[in-house]
Amino acid sequence: MTDNKFILDACCGGRMMWMNKHHPNAVYIDIREAKKGHIGKGFNPGHEINPDFVMDFRKMSFPDKRFKLVIFDPPHLTTLSESSIMRKKFGCLNAETWQSDLEKGFKECWRVLEDYGVLVFKWNDIEISYKKVLSFIKEKPLFMNITAGQKALKDGHHSFWFCFMKIPKEVRNDEY
Ligand SMILES: C[S@@+](CC[C@H](N)C(=O)[O-])C[C@H]1O[C@@H](n2cnc3c(N)ncnc32)[C@H](O)[C@@H]1O
Question: Measured between alpha carbons, how far is 124 from 24 in angstroms, rounded to an integer?
Answer without folding.
Answer: 28
